[in-house]
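Technical note accompanying the year-one report. For the benefit of new consortium partners, we illustrate the data format agreed upon in the data management plan: each record pairs a sequence with a structure-token string. No post-processing was applied to the example shown here.
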Amino acid sequence: MSTSALTQTEALTPARALAVVPELDGRRAAPVIEIAHLRKAYGTIVAVEDVSFTVRAGEIFGILGRNGAGKTTTVECISGLRAADGGTISVLGRDPRRDRSELHERVGVQLQHSALPDRMKVGEAVDLYASFYERPADGRELISSLGLEAARDQYYGKLSGGQKQRLSIVLALIGRPDIAILDELTTGLDPEARRDTWRLIEGVRDRGVTIVLVTHLTEEAERLCDRVALIDHGRVTALDAPDALGRQAATGKRVRLRSAGAHGDEVLRTLPAVSAIEHHGEDVVVTGSGDLVAEVVLALDRAGLRAHDVRTETASLQDAFLALTDESDHTTTTREGER
């Protein structure tokens, strides 16, 4: 996270999906970000073609898409780092370019490709960023609450990936923002550090900060986000709560069980209720209709095969993403462990 980037941007706080945002005094939470028909091009390359969505106060709003889909350009326009070529953007009722200095005090940003000098200490970085604000948060309290107390005097270049991400969150929160924009915060982290970071993000929301979370990981969006905008080739292809998007993608009932081998597949393919069979490691996922569990178990039993670890599954956000975006390249939009 470059000093210039963070000092000139604002942290955006996403709001909860309309379906799940609690009512406040009989009314839904007010929108804090409103985007209509956003467009941004770099020469002849159109990065964002037509993006529209609203973020409401208090939610974690996810922007999910493959690398190059237009996610980062979108949040850079929201934060005022880039001027849009078309459309309108309102952040806390202000224009992010014209009212940048005012929004600077209310929006915190952690950008994807950014870094501090390797020989800057954690405490020095926090003190520096605190100096950019009139009424900064207590840096020592943030360092302690984000689990960096022991690293206060360590150089940035010596921090682990997880510690660097914790510091990113500290710097995004030091100005006491109403909104925080977090761009690909867990990229490159191991599974344990990623889950630790997820808990930290949930803690930030508990502080009353609205969060806009940019990610290419469907598991991350499912875990954290109240609503998700799926972006593909610079356009919003769907927007809803993660479970609602999963239901939209459902093409039938699904049963997961431990593989019974090639002979088991042959047995299952003879069943009229079965429409598809997929292998995931040692597991088999069977898609179909009717009383699928009973038919699968009974068919295997008649063939002298035992079905182990049988469980039903519902369609996931990843299923929705694959169904609603370009199928030519999904290598970056995967669940943890499938990258």
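Partners are asked to follow this layout when depositing records. The mean pLDDT is 82.
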